[in-house]
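Assess the record.
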Amino acid sequence: MSAAGLVRGGSRGITSTLRALGIARVLLRHRLGDFLEDTAFGRWLWLLRPLTPAKDAADLPRGQRLRLALQELGPIFVKIGQVLSTRRDLLPPDIAEELALLQDRVAPFPGDAALALVEAALGRPVTAVFSGFDLEPLASASIAQVHAARLHNGREVVVKVLRPDIRKRIAADIELLRTLASLADRHHPNAEKIRAQEVVSEIEATLHAELDLQREGANASLMRRTWLGSDDLYVPEVFWDYSTETVLTMERVRGIPSDDIAALDAAGIDRKALAAKGVRVFYAQVFRDNFFHADAHAGNIWVDATRKENPRFIAIDFGIVGQLDRRDQYYLAENFMAIFQRDYRRIAELHVEAGWMPAHIRIDELEAATRAVCEPYFTRPLSEISLGEVLVKLFKTAQRYELTLQPQLILLQKTLLNIEGVGRLLDPKLDIWAEARPVLEKILRERYSPQTLGAEFRKRLPELITHAPDMPRLLHDFLAQQVRGQHSIHMRSEDLAELARISKAGQRQTVYAILGTGLMIVAAVLFALESGGPRFYGIPAVAGIAGLGAFGAFLAAWPRR
């Protein structure tokens, strides 16, 4: 390595050491050594405690002390605290609730620096793009800040600009967190439950997603297209000609923050109608669109003040969005419906069928645990029940039964809690269950309707036809193997027996898929060659063959245990 490289490496090491000492000093000042008790690092901090005077707030509850410490450590740690607040599966409730209060408001960087960053990103002077650019920011957060501007055509816009050197600062702090996570893995008595490296990976992925403003613009663009013309939700327009990975230009919108009850009442907004719409929008985003705003706190969800009788929400800041795969979406929807119906056995079965829990878990025990969580809630009026709270407690209970970590569902839980919080603030008597159930039932009916299944089949038909020439050979080989008994395997262990059951179900579905596809292709050929064709009992043969093929495909797609 060159001398310059050694100097740079040494400089980074010194910087990391100083940063680590600074973090330790803040932890000591806020008396946070109890988070690291029973560890070597915690005992070392305890020895240094007399050397660091405590802040006046040192006697506050531990969650509050942690929140204040993160605010003192700076914007990156504020963002880390926000991400951790979504991990209610790992954090005690008092800490998770305090971290959820972290506000992403930090001191702005100079407007001249923002203007220079915009010019560098767009490759032209600001005056060539905007007829006006306000140097005073509208808002300043840990990752970026926002400036008002005006296009030459008169359109009002906002320009979001990444903070200078934010990527380097995040990379350095993530590296330091990795080191701390390694210490936790080696020394903390509950290291397996904490899974520190996985938490750091999740924080890193979230931060890097927010560092790409082009990705945020794409999120906003897709959500706008989905909700264009809606009376429930408005999403501002993205101006792609003036956006890059580090600069995002969007339509400027005005509204009232959804938690400003006094301003909403002064504007004459029907808060009850608005609260019900919020619940419906959330369930539509999750189960209809499979694309939901995952940072839906009151600061990012405004209310259109121009619509009093038929109010709608305005969404901003699309750095964090959520999606579920079709399997998780199905099982989550079924879980909600089972909760609505108080079918505890079904909830237990769904957790195992979804693969969230191992198959050896006894369903009756899980059913009893689920009943113990849910039944106390149903003694209250439905308007007082939090579905998000029920879901969080269900997942916490399931952890005792080897629940597999589901980060995408944890993000959904956090969003559901945010939406319910806003809804109950707008309308304390909001019956979330009454609003959510018909929306979910309607979406499920439409999703599994013959029309939807037919559209899905038409979409996949080219793929089926492409593989059609291989089907006869595959079918012949498969049936020959069955005749020779090559699929007969004797298992002894319970795990292998379960694997055999799954394999047998997969073989049945393969047969159904091959036969179904083959019959549908035969029907298509007959239809192309013969306008009439043979009939049986007055029914065209082509229709019967196609029907059998569709039934075979349906059996192949049907989930089996």
Notes: The longest helix spans residues 494-529. The chain has four domains: 8-102, 105-224+236-253, 256-448, 450-557. Residues 246 and 454 are 43 Å apart (CA to CA). The mean pLDDT is 77.
